[in-house]
Fold this sequence. Notes:
Layout: H1 6-24, H2 35-48, H3 51-62, H4 67-82
InterPro entries: Serpin_dom (IPR023796), Serpin_sf (IPR036186), Serpin_sf_1 (IPR042178)
Organism: Oesophagostomum dentatum
Pfam family, one: Serpin
Amino acid sequence: MSASGGVKSFLIAETDFGLNMLHHAPADESVVVSPLSVIFALTMVQAGAKDNTKSQINKLISKDSSDSAILDYYSDLSQQITKAKNGVKSRIANGFFLK
């Protein structure tokens, strides 16, 4: 995946999102959160969202890319992360917990 064309808007959105999360993290608490995992979860929510909710999530995770571009980008990114390289395999674990 190169950083050209539409990919740049995703990289910018991911960076902005991650820095914004860090900025809002409590300074007096230890918290570990992966911005990319949150974006993957938001991508799943975006797929089922409508109207204003969908629009707001699109702006946040992709700077207003199309639904198909979002799906293609994050599917490709997920595959690249989990694909074994030099014997090293990565896994992505995400979950929602509701009370």
